[in-house]
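Readers of this paper often ask what the protein records in our data store actually look like. Nothing more is needed to write down the fold, since each code stands for a local backbone conformation. Below, we set out a record of this kind in full and without editing:
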Amino acid sequence: MLKITLDHIIELLEHEKYEELKEKINQLHPGDAAQIINELPAEYQVKVFSYLSPEIASDVINDLHDELREDVLESIQQNRLVEIIDEMDSDEATDIAAELADHQLKDVLQKIDKEDSDEIKQLLVYDEDTAGGIMQKEIIAVNKEMNRAEMIDHIRAIYDDVEKLYYIFVTDKENKLIGILEVSKLLLCHDEMKAVDIMDEDVISAPVGMDQEEVARIFRKYDIYILPVVDKENHLLGRITVDDIIDVIDDEASEDVYKMVGLENEDKVFTSPLSSVKKRLPWLTLNLFTALLVSSVVGIFEGTIARLSFLAVLMPIVAGLGGNSGTQTLTVITRGIALGELTLHNTYRAIVKEITVGIINGLLIGSVAMLIAYLLKGNIILGAVLGISMVCNMFIAGLVGSSIPVVMKTLKIDPALASSVIITMLTDIGGFATFLGLATLML
């Protein structure tokens, strides 16, 4: 495969060698072409995409950055868009169709092949984060009574429309999924054998409404490459391939990371400043009110701080370590929920484990902090206050960091959403109240 550097592409553009550019960019692997276009200066991106053949463009467009893909879809000529969508699998075509304006989508669906148009319309009905939303309609299914020759003829007739042919689905006369057949078994079996004789009846499938995270867990658990999608009556609707699941895993991981800090997936590196402000401001506003609540707790002990100003120096230590400990616990528990490791039966054990870890860390870190405070001020009571408050705050961090995401999951709320702000607020309040309260009593 030809390799071209980004600098070479820019050089061709600057010297207006467009024919050479068109030839070279279409010789690249679609993944490499998408990477180069994403990294080009903004004024060149849409132009270079326009030089791609419809076949290459169909593989590149979904790998473009979101903002760039929007620019491409806004500027692209309708006939070219139709050519590109005609080259795409139904699931990828549906992803693009979902981003089009209503009038643009209507025109495109009228111009593409009717069968493709019908498939896209069917897929648009499903939520984008469900099995139906990520499945593709291109499948090879054979009737259970077909013999080897009939199955091979059937595959030959529709093979060009189906990529990644690892398995063949076996259905009955009502198109209900009853088995799955490895292609290798078909190649090795005798001519007189039927699909029902060589299929595997223990077929794993996904309901069309299953959340894409659950679908990803099935792929991970059973180490499979293809997953059929069925309706409530077990009619075969489509399939999900492992490359689709890799995208799902990336998307879900990114979504959780963004949510834990109060951001949306759409807020990217090159999102416009105004758009980023709109996405971040509500969360920061919430953060402001939680910070005011924490400050009000500190205000209760204003007299203590006035008498012992050195407490103000030690306060960030208590809050900072408690917040970090809570975030560590939150990350472990949230990831455990995402991977399906936490169940109704083992959640209590996980919470107890995290509380235990918090207390042990508190004892160890608190002992060091107590020694440091004593060496700095020569006051053993001050050191004891700091050490005890560290243990208490680490306990709070373990408790809230493990229980809050579980409670949110029980309430059908994404555990990644708002957990970090709540936990930071609670560990700050707990840390300051414990530290300043003990200082008031003991000092």
